């Protein structure tokens, strides 16, 4: 079965998906929409696809089986709800939104529509992350240490808190999600955020330039996440997961895995393209009518968003917030 795909958004992240979908045998992008008409036309011409006059027109179940929503979180409106009501399967980039109420409405529409969904927590698809998950299944974790440090997104909207949810919500959400995926659900969170540099470098920006988050898990484990989006001379990401009889570390957004215990001291670097693995899993799920191979559905992605929003609330209220 060929899965006919509509693409909403033709920017950088969409191009990444296009490159992956070209390698997926069952995938065919047939329609494209972007507010940047020139960009949409260029993308569509390269694919042999058609440009639609609106996102609503693209969401036509007679033309497409699935849609890839690759526009920023502030610009999605009710696209997921429309797709769900029309029986169109949805891939949507992370994060799912800016607050839980509208995302919750979308999740309900998706459940009622019975469609398949996949959320762009792409790091789950690394074989190294899968190996880490399997290793941790019977382990007791007591400490988690994570960080993500680097530069900011070039788009002006990204530096506005009400449009991006900041670095924690838009980028570090990958580390937030991976901790959930590997160790279990969060329980409580406290946080502090700073604007020591960004307020002078970019006075119009409203996002923090650094954050320090502490949390507890339902399992009883505790941990920290530190992050910065203004770091000129150092960048990277890391998650350390520590138990009484093992040490596990994921670096490079999960690409490299280290495990140390009484039986082994190994380091493995993945050779996979996780975007391809993610998109292939979604397309094949749509073709088969089964979501078993999808590693993050909409309800799952919503729980990751809940942690981010709780962290910002905890910082604002200077209190511990239960998730």
From TrEMBL:
Pfam families: GFO_IDH_MocA (PF01408), GFO_IDH_MocA_C3 (PF22725). Residues 148-243 form the GFO/IDH/MocA-like oxidoreductase domain. Residues 3-121 form the Gfo/Idh/MocA-like oxidoreductase N-terminal domain. InterPro entries: Gfo/Idh/MocA-like_OxRdtase_N, Gfo/Idh/MocA_Oxidoreductase, GFO_IDH_MocA-like_dom, NAD(P)-bd_dom_sf. SUPFAM superfamilies: Glyceraldehyde-3-phosphate dehydrogenase-like, C-terminal domain, NAD(P)-binding Rossmann-fold domains. It comes from the Bacteria. This is Gfo/Idh/MocA family protein.
